[in-house]
Amino acid sequence: MKLPQIIHRLSPRMQLLTSTGLLGLSALLLVAHAVDVRQTRDIGLPAAIQLSSIEQHISILKQQADAAQLTASISGGSSEELLHVYTLPADASLDRLVGTFTMLFNQLQKNNELQSVPSVQVGDTIDAPLRASGASLQKLQKTPVSFDAVTNEQGLKTLLLFSNVSGLLTVSDALSQKDIDTLIALTEQENPAAITSLEEFFATDLLQYAQDPGAFEDQLMRSFSSDSFAQSFHAVISASQLADVSQLLHGGIGQQLDSQKLWPLRFLTLSKSSVNDAGNGLYRVSLSFDAYSRAQ
Amino acid sequence: MSNTNTQTEAEDALLDPSVPNNVRAGSARSDTVVCDVAETTILERIATPMLLFSGALFVLLMFSWLFILPRFTRFDVAGASLTPLEMAAYTQQQNVQLATLEQKRDELVLPQTDPTYTALKSEKNQLPDPLLIRTALINAAGTVVTGDATIAIKTLDVDSATNVVSITGDVVTKDPSSMTQLAAYIDAVEKMPFVSHLQRPSFTRTQDGSGNFHSPFSMQFIFSPAQ
User: Fold this and answer.
1) Complex ipTM > 0.95
2) Can you tell me the distance from the alpha carbon of B124 to that of B115, in angstroms, rounded to the nearest whole number?
């Protein structure tokens, strides 16, 4: 049966009803067209534009992660060992800590930055629960250590900076998360393959770096050809804590820490500090530290 | 004569039960009858063209929906054709993968992985740094003062347990503007990114034997670490 015959067999009433039904379906289809076009414009196209850069980024990250994993598997382990032996030792013994302060006071006095060698008070070791919680976190203890000293401006800065440095092991420890993110982003832009060089730079021992920063920085720069990376890199480093730390460990203090095998330093936090202007460019300083160790 | 005939036909129609009501009612007013009959006829006549039009429209729209629209609103990604919503979901999925890979890469690039050390280091970074605080306070004192005024910080106490920082000092001027200089210094301290809940000092002015004006101050604030 042909279409005209079918149409003519339908009564006018049925034809009108069918027309109404078809018009209704057409209206639905029109709405669906409009929705589809709007979704394409508002959702699909922005997502498609974003996707190409994301996929490119993912490809770079996969390469970087593979390279970093390879380097980490070759060089890993040594800093972990130093951490457990010296920075967060299992015993709260004080000989090494007191030896470190003695060396520091001697150096300050040698540089005429400290009036007299202060006496160091040591309190009882107590538990030091971390604010963060997790099954992988070990229990810690802390031992209060304090002293009063009279210093000049430079001596005061050295003492305060020393508390910041204590407990840091590598270059990455002296950089903020923001600095690290910036350097990684710069590496991604300039030469993604140089992530291994950056990884080595981050893992550089802080004392070794402080004694010859140029050598380690040059080694990193060899992986980058453009001057823009060097400029941005030096801007990040000079604005970071690493510059101050290098200044502290570059001179006699760094040499003494190395020669007396006092590096790496015990993890210290400054619990209380008081600085009083004593006149004539001198300051009466009272510092209280917490020296951390792992609970047995 | 014709009027009489029309009236008789209308009366017959009214009496005849087989005549539909509308015709019967319309018979009373001859113009209404003509209109109702015409509407039915019109509907009968437009039924077929309307069916053809609506059928053609539906077929065209269905054709467009199935074959034309997908050409412009589908995205070919990784061998699959995705709708805009599927495309957005796929991009989101790729974003999650990107974040995971970034985290993995960052973990591998940084040497320390001991979680206890990382947590302790993070806590240390949140503690007030007397060196940073002192440097910022001295720099602010240097930039705020005008003329030959000086702002000296006499004591600086920092308690890491409570994050309370206490400062005492003195503003010294040769003219009687020491209190104004102190107010400007307090404003500068309050604007520092790590300062919160500043307890403002009281404003006093004294004069020493050599004619200098002094506004000693003592204030406290809570150190709030950068986020």
Assistant:
1) no
2) 14
Q: Which residues pair with B218 in a beta bridge?
A: B168
What span, in angstroms and rounded, lies between the C-alpha atoms of A114 and A159? Answer: 10
User: Would you tell me the crossing angle of helices B2-15 and B21-28 to the nearest 10 degrees?
Assistant: 150
Cα dihedral A183, A186, A187, A189, rounded to 10, equals 160
**What is the pLDDT, as a whole number, of residue B98?**
93
Residue A94 has pLDDT above 70, yes or no: yes
Interface contact flag, B91 A47, Cβ < 8 Å: yes
C-alpha distances out from residue B11 to A155, B26, B64, Å: 126, 11, 59
pLDDT score of B191: 93
Nearest by Cα to B167 from B214, B220, B97, B204: B220
Q: Does A199 touch chain B (CB under 8 A)?
A: yes
Sign of the torsion angle spanned by Cα atoms A78, A79, A85, A90: negative
Both tokens of residue B153?
């910080």
pLDDT tens, A160-210? 999 999 999 999 989 988 999 999 989 988 888 888 899 889 989 999 999
Please report the residues numbered 45 through 104 in chain B whose beta carbons come closer than 8 angstroms to any beta carbon of chain A: 47-48, 50-55, 57-58, 61-62, 64-65, 69, 72-73, 75, 77, 83-85, 87-88, 90-91, 94-95, 97-98, 101-102, 104
Distances (CA, A) of B224 to A3, A11, A132, B49, B196: 81, 83, 18, 78, 6
Q: At what angle do helices A195-202 and A45-75 cross, to 10 degrees?
A: 50
3-class DSSP state of B192: coil
- pLDDT at residue B146 is higher than 90: no
Q: With b meaning 16 or more CB within 10 Å and e meaning fewer, what string describes A113-133?
A: bbbeebebebeebeebebeee
Q: Which of B45, B58, B109 to mutate to test the interface with A (most CBs of A within 10 A)?
A: B109
Residues 6+ apart with CB under 8 A from B64: A29, A33
* Three-state secondary-structure class, residue A6: helix
Retrieve residue B73's tokens.
Answer: 């609103």
Read off the pTM.
0.72
Average of per-residue pLDDT across A256-276? 94
Q: Higher pLDDT residue, B38 or B3?
A: B38
| CA-closest candidate to residue B188, choices B225, B148, B226, B221 | B221
Q: Where do we find the tokens 């960052």?
A: B106
The pLDDT, as a whole number, for residue A76 is: 58
Query: Cα angle at B60 between B58 and B62, to 5 degrees?
Result: 65
Mean per-residue pLDDT, A60-75? 80
